[in-house]
Amino acid sequence: MGTDTRPRNRAVAASFVGTAIEWYDFFIYSTAAALVFNRQFFPDFAPMVGTLLAFSTFVVGFVARPIGGVIFGHLGDRRGRKSVLVVTLTLMGVCTFLIGLLPTYAQIGIWAPILLVTVRFVQGIALGGEYGGAVLMAVEHSHPERRGFFGSWVQVGVPVGLALSNLVFLLVALLPRDALQSWGWRVPFLLSAALVAVGFFIRRRVDESPEFREVKRERGPARRPAVEAVKRSWAPILLCAAAGFAPGTMFYASMVFGLSYGTDHVGVSRGTMLGLTLLAMVVVLPCLLYFGALSDRLGRKPVFAGGVAGMALMAFPWLLLVDTGSFGPMLLGYLLISVPFSAAYGTLAPLLAELFDPEVRYSAVNISYAVSNVFGAGMAPIVATSLLIRTDSGLPIAGYIVVVCAISFVSLMALRETVRARRPRGPAAGAVPGADTVVAEGTGR
């Protein structure tokens, strides 16, 4: 009789659906920050300065992620992956719904951006605990030979969330300008309540991770998983964080900053920019799964490295094509960056999960991913907007992306390959502090 794959399929589906919903919540904020929030919450500033301030509130969610990563990583390593994922999904949905109800600057003055930042901060805490748990539920339920493919389904949740948010905003953008600014922008936030209810139902039906159950049965959870993770694996945590700079920066520079760049600098319509990102996501979705599966055969590092190198090569062509203001060349530019981005991002989940011991894995993955997002993805819209204000050109932004890709490439090369390899339990150190000796797949644990 064959192995029952239903627990794995339910875990992968729950990780994918829940991640897509949470990233929908996260991305409708970024879309609103690029297109609406400068007028609703920072109306006393010039448009570009207001956009910069709106992106600053966007970054608050990233700053909060390490806090959420430590809190929920501790709970996930102590009490299990499943219960934490239900909590993070619910908290994220409540915060998103509240943003849709917030009064604007015209109604309550300075308290409007203060409330916006506060809710955004809590939203970031929730998302800080989400990613690691979703990755582990998918990867830890999977056969070692298929971790890349099934882990990439978690990554697919991100572009699906972005596509959903852009699709909703694309429909809302059809409203008259006054209607969009007065009440239309609230609709995507309020719709989150229905999506979260669906995700909650799906995640409640998932079995706990088999690796966590094994840890709990054999020796019990770590007492202080976050502290132990840093002690054992501080070097891989930092290297993984730096390796993740490139896909995070590329994604947020193109899909978030790109919206305001196209509308305010190039002069194309909101609908055109939302349509471009939506079409790019259509390409990203199958590419993520393809490259995740490819990493099962070739290894995580070669596929990831190829993606980082491709993003560096495509950074200047992307911005030059966007600067044309013509839909065809702009779409080509977005497609050129979508493929190498998918190669790097589609490989990230299994790489993170396989580097760390299961008793501290939730904490280690959360901390690494949160640090990566604070200094990579979260800073990308602000750095790009600042460069544009200073130079009135997109070329320095492309240069910034190339530098980030170089940092990621060097950091990735310092990590060990994890495919078809497994670490022995316990903090047996290798040459790099926190990087344990690798033993062949199939040996005892």
Write structural notes for this entry.
- The chain is mostly helical and 445 residues long.
- The protein contains 20 helices and 2 strands.
- Strands 1-2 form a two-stranded antiparallel sheet.
- α1 runs antiparallel to α11 and α5 (81-99) packs antiparallel against α11.
- The longest helix is centred in the first third of the chain and has 30 residues, at 6-35.
- The two termini are 26 Å apart.
- One of its GO terms (molecular function) is symporter activity.
Given this structure, which CATH class is correct?
A: Mainly Alpha
Give the beta-strand count.
2
The major pleated sheet works out as: 2 strands, antiparallel
- Total domains: 1
Percent helix, as a range, is over 70%
Q: What's the average pLDDT?
A: 83
Task: Specify the number of helices.
Answer: 20
- Spatially, the strands of the biggest sheet line up as 1-2
Q: CATH-wise, what's the superfamily?
A: MFS general substrate transporter like domains
- Termini Cα gap: 26 Å
